[in-house]
Each structure stands twice: as C-alpha cells, then as structure tokens.
Amino acid sequence: MADVRDREISVEQDHLDRVYRRLEEKIDEAEFLMRDAAQRGQVGTPGALAERDAQVFRAGIHLNRLNNEFEDFLFGRVDLLPGKDGKKGPDGAFTSVEPAEDAVRADSTADIAETLHIGRIGVLDTDYAPLVIDWRAPAAAPFYRATPVDPGRVVRRRVIRSKGRQVLGVEDDLMRPETRAFLDGEQLAVVGDGALMAALGQARSHTMRDIVASIQAEQDQVIRAPAASVTLVEGGPGTGKTAVALHRAAYLLYQDRRRYAGGILIVSPTPLLVAYTEGVLPSLGEEGQVAIRAVGSLSDDAAGPEGATVYDTAAVARVKGSSRMLKVLRKAARGALELPPASAAPSGPDATEDEEEGQLTLGGFGAFDGPGTGTAGAPAASPTRLRVVAFGRRLELEADELDEIRRTALGGTAPVNLLRPRARRLLLDALWARSGAASRHSDAELAAELRSGFDEDITSEDAFQDFLNAWWPELTPRGVLAAMSDERRLGRWARRVFNHGEVRRVARSLRRLDAAGAGPVSVHDVAILDELQAVLGVPARPKQRREQGPLDHLTGLDELMPQREETQRERAERLAQERTEYAHVIVDEAQDLTPMQWRMIGRRGRHATWTIVGDPAQSSWPEQEEATAARDEALGGRPRRRFTLTVNYRNPAEIAELAARVLALAMPGAQSPRAVRSTGVEPRFAVAGKDLVDTVREEARRLLDRVEGTVGVVVAMDRRDEAVRLLKGLGERVAVLGSLEAKGLEYDATIVVSPAEIAGGTSRGEVIGGESPAGLRVLYVALTRATQQLTVVSGPRDRPDGNGVPTLLRAPGGAGSGAAADVRGG
Ligand SMILES: Nc1ncnc2c1ncn2[C@@H]1O[C@H](COP(=O)(O)OP(=O)(O)OP(=O)(O)O)[C@@H](O)[C@H]1O
C-alpha cells in the first residue's frame, strides 16, 4: 500500500512540477509585457497610450495572480469516462456531464478518457491544453458534484495535499466502486479514506480555512447558483453556511468580474467572526473587491474601523432594533431642531437600576465609561426671535411666527438637513412681508428687483446667518442620538410608540454620549445612526476628488498592479469606506438581524443581487416575524431561490444529539442537521464546586490535554468580562467569550458554562425556568461550537441531576445522558 501511495504521490508531483514550469514561463511573459508597456508609456499618442493601458492591465492580472504562491495551489483531480456526445469545450475538456452509453463495458471495466486537475486558478499549457482547471470553471463542477449515487462521468475523485511545490499526500474517493477503470492500460489506484473526513478531523486554529478541496454536492449547488436576484440558504449549525457564503463570493467574482467590480459586501454579526473568516477569500485568490464587515461597523458613524464596541442588554436591544424605532427617529430628527434650553437636564438615573439596564462591553475592544457618567444633553437652545435691519428699518419675527415657519418648512418627508434652504426662503418671505415693501411697488419688475436686493442685504448680515445656524443647525446623527438620552424628550418623541419602561431604558443606555454625540456606541446604535443619516440627509458639499490617471478607467486595474503603494487590504478598506452601495450583498447569520439592521443593509444593496444565509433555530432576535418583514422590504419584489443544507460537518454525532435536545425545547418539531461523523467521545458534565471559575479552569486544562487545537469557553453575556479576567493565563489556545459572540465560531473543544444562565440571558437572579425561546436558541448556538469535545459545567441555577446533567439538557423522558459524568460537590 505504501508503494502505491508513493507511486501516486510521485505521479502528482510530476504534474505539479509541470504546472510550476509553465507558471514560471507565464511570469516571465508578464514581466516582459510590463517592461515593454513602461517603454511605450514614453510615446504620448492616445492610441499608444490606450494600447499600453490594456497591455499593462492584462500583465498586471497575470503577475498578481501568479506571484501569489498558494500553499496548496493544486488540490484536486478527477478521472472521467468519455462524454455522451463526445464533444469538447474550448478548454479541451468534454462538455457532457453524462458518460457515453458504452463507457462501462458489460464486464464492468472501463477506460478513463480524460483526467482533469483542479486548482485555485486555471493554467493552460503552451498548446492550450488545460494543465489546471480553475475550481470555479464549469469543467470543475464534477469534482464537487459527483457522488456514488450520481457519479456522472467521474470514476475517481482525488484530493491532493501539497505545500509549496511539494506534493505531500493524496486521498481518493471512488464514485464508481463497482467499475474497474483503466488509465493508459493500468488499473486506477485508490489511496486513503477520503478527503472530507481527513479535513474534518484536523485541529482548528483561530482562523477559518477554505474548503475548496472538499466542497460537497449540496454546498456546490449554492456556491454556483446563478447570481440573479436573491439566493436564500438555510441550514443548521455546522452545515457550512459561512464557508459556502465565502466561496460563493469568490465564485461570483470569477464568473463576472466586471459586474462585481461594484463590490461585494459580506455582513457578519460580530468583529470576532470577521476576524475568523477574513483569511478565506485571500486563500481563494480574491480580496480586493470584497468587503467583510461586522454589522456594528457598517455605518460611517460607528467609531473606528472595528465599529461598535458595546452590546446593549436584551431588553434595550429589543427596543432599539425594532421597526417601531423608525417612527421615533423621524420625530426626533424634526424635534431636535427645536430643542428646549439645555438647562432642562435629563432626569438622573439611580445607580442600581442603571447597572441593570446598562450595556455589556465587548471586552478587549475598547473602553466604556459606564452609563450615567457622560453628560447627556442638547445642543444650545433654539433662538426664539429673529431681529435684522433692512432698508434702514428693524424687522422682527417672534417665536410663534418662527414656529409656524418651521412647521411649514418641515411639511413633507424630505430629509431635515436638506430643508434648510427652504426654511431660509420662508424666513426671507416673512421678513419681506413684514417690511411692507411689496405693497409699495405695483410694478412687478421693480418689486422683484427690490426683493432681490432685500434678500442680499439680509443674507449678508451676520445676525441673520448666526440666527439661521442656531435656528436650523445642520443636525448630525450622533447629535440627535445624544438628544435621545433625555428621558422626557425621548418620551415626547416616542409617545404612543414606546411605553415608559422602554423610553427609560433606551434613554439611559445613551448616556455614554456627550452632547455632540461623541462616545462609544452600541451595535444596535449603529443601525439607528445609519437610519438617522438617511432621515437627516447630508447637504451637498463640493467633493474633493482624488486625482485620476488614465489607468483608473480600466476596471480593477489599480488593485492588480503589483507596484502600487497602497496594499490590497488598505485599498479594500478605503473603497469600503467610500462605497455606499454594492453589486452583491452576502448576509451571514441573517437570522440575527433586527429590522433596523435590515434597513441599514438594504440601503447598501438597493440595486444588488443577494445571498442570505442563516438558521432560524440559532436566532437571538425574539421578534422573528418583524425581522422577516423588514428583510422582505429590503429585498423588494426580487425573485428568490431557496436552498437547504442538511449535513452537519462540525459536530460529531455525540454533541449534535445533546444540542438537539435544546433545539426541541427552543423550536419544537425543528429538524436537526445530520452529523457526518461520530468520534465515540460523549459530552462531559461537570458540576461546579464552591468556585465556578476553578472548575472551569480545571476543565479547560483537561481539554487542552485532549485536543491539539483551540478550546472555547462560552459564558452568559454578562459574565463575560469577569470570565475573561479570571480565566487569564490558560494560554493562546483558549478563548473566553460571551454567548452572543460565539456566533459562527468553532473550537476543537468547548466548555459551556451554565446553560441556564446562557438561556436566561443573565447570570443575575435566581429565576429558574425564565428562559425565553430566544435564550434557548442562544444556548443551542453555544452547544454547537465544538468539532471534537464538549464539556458542560453546571452552576446552582442549572439544577444538575445525579449525573451532573443540567435540567435543560436532560433527555426527553427524564433519562440522563449516557455521557461520562463528573459530579463534584456543590
Ligand atoms: N465540504 C466541507 N469540507 C470540509 N469542511 C467543511 C465542509 N463544509 C463545512 N466544513 C467545515 O465545517 C465547519 C462548519 O462550517 P461553517 O462554519 O461554514 O458552518 P455554518 O453552517 O456557518 O455553521 P453555524 O451556523 O454554526 O455558524 C467549518 O469548520 C467548515 O470548514
């Protein structure tokens, strides 16, 4: 067997050597073209310039791609029977998916007609024969789609493992195990136990890997679905939704690079998931045109590149995310113009309540003053009288007249900041009327001339400009948000929309902002700020344009030029900042978006096609119907194509079975995905002794001994900071995170600390059975993060049974788990 393996490895090594020789030739060619183009640049005729541009563009593409030496550049191979109609496509491969009638003989023997190698980019030989097919090309589809049930032309699928230029191993899957197939007279060899299992068993690091070598058929259907309109993908934990979404971005760019030069936006729920996934696209050779952003960093108003650093408590988030907020914001945007004097200070919070209703910081991402420490407040009072001098006379408008003018100006729904010119005109009309000048001149032409002189006179007066700036200031989203921290004021704006308690909670949560709105904002504030930006509008200002060179007109050129000063990542970030709309929007963990967040994302994809992946069973947003309605509004009438992923590639069956118990509580009747493998290791139950932290620490050490990669410790959100502090020193392989941060992440092993606290949303109080369906869904997420081992640590709230199994995780019918339990005193 070792002989066969070595022989097969050396066959693939020969092929890889050939590919690299060809790549080197192509790099030489591209470099020659770049040099040549540079010389032509000295000839200044427009024709020569255009030719140079096009040449540089093509050479730039080559160089950029070829210089990226991918670790496992070549990763797959399929051996195929002849095609049904014998036709070949432009790349020299048979086009038919089905084999020829007589491809397999009566004695079950067959000859391989075609061998294709699959890699991260396509490479043609000098005679245009395909040395490597790009994984996204149609000819590569059989590599992903073939199954033993529906093999098409594929006899053997091989995954090739290499590092740099060296082939390290091969793993084969036979799609037609009953057929004896021959290649150049020799029977096809089969090596290894299949690539998927090899990939799934690997230790996890803190960054996600691409799955390009082992994409499964149902996933491939989604990745290659046509880009038109909306692709909706649902699937349970670990079914590869995030992986599929990322590979789809790369596929779409390959299919239609020009169209997606408009940018692809991937929206992720947390900065942690962004950090976890952002290496995948570069490993697929794509980076520049894709922006991966956390939902808390989408608006320009979120502070810093990492965006919002604070999570609101569930009660506050529920109000801020709701579409009811919209009405309030429209009122606030108008109301903020007429703010009462700043002395009407906000009613002060009392410290205990504040603590309960404050925010949970995402530790490690930034400081948080704590509620009540900032001074909430309003911009200076709006002036109540306008006094100017025109035609030698003093003219005045009093408070009630000014109010009337403001009301007239605000009629309709136009953005408040854009109504300032209208308000200015109405003021001038009123002053003109007050001057009585109009009635003194019957000649229309003369009156008009007089009027224009009058306007000029008044508007050049400092007093008028100062008045206008104070009476109709340009409002900023942050300024309005800060104004909402005054409870009485917010109560007015939210009358008949929010109840008392809701007003109080929201107002208090905004006390971190100063009067101008500076200070840390929460993830949910970001969607509010974005909405306010739309409601307020941005007055037109002369744009400062970047100087453009002729090459800028070639799509994507500067991203591909290797000698650029800005790195690709910097450019992507800059473009993401500048860009307000995208050609395709991919939403990951879509089940968690609030209506306000859907509106924010919708504004970025008004003309886009969409891919939306999610799992309703993992939603932490309680009002799912409201969110679905907001999603539908963002998507408009675009037709939708739906897919469901059914296989769990992350959790072994033992963990999936335990998680399914919580799913049954959270969403009775919902189907769990089928776990693709089992490890024989049952989840472990530990009951905390006197000190919960000691137990967790001990269990973490135990798991570090048992797995090679990462260990995740998931705690209730408001235990997070404390847990991070107390569990320091366990080393880089351990990550401590709050339940809401666990979204989308995975670890070799996880410790879930107190299921009852996680499901109840809080570690405070002794309420048992206070879990909401949303809380149970959060627990379901926590329980489905491990690829190998799971330990559940119970505290007193969990009411563990004699086997240490907490109430929420007991098998239906009351039987404990068959797991090895470790019960400690407590
Ligand atoms: N075809 C595949 N080959 C190898 N690994 C795979 C495959 N599909 C998924 N995986 C692995 O399974 C794990 C789960 O994938 P992913 O995170 O994309 O799932 P998900 O559906 O987004 O999960 P969740 O809903 O829990 O966030 C990842 O480690 C991923 O690499």
Record keyword descriptors for this entry.
single chain, 826 residues, alpha/beta, Rossmann fold, 4 domains, six-stranded mixed sheet, 29 helices, 16% strand, disordered C terminus, binds adenosine-5'-triphosphate
In short:
The chain has 826 residues and is α/β, with parallel strands linked by helices.
Describe the structure.
ATP binds at residues 235-242. Residues 361-375 have a biased composition (Gly residues). It is built from 29 helices and 27 strands. The strands form seven sheets. A six-stranded mixed sheet has the order 4-5-3-1-6-7, with helices on one face. The chain has a six-stranded parallel sheet with strand order 12-11-17-18-10-19. α23 links the parallel β17 and β18. The longest helix is centred in the N-terminal third of the chain and has 39 residues, at 2-40. It starts with a helix and ends with a strand. Mean pLDDT is 82; it is low at 340-380, 544-565, 764-769 and 815-826. It binds adenosine-5'-triphosphate. The site of adenosine-5'-triphosphate (ATP) has 24 residues, from α4 and α6.
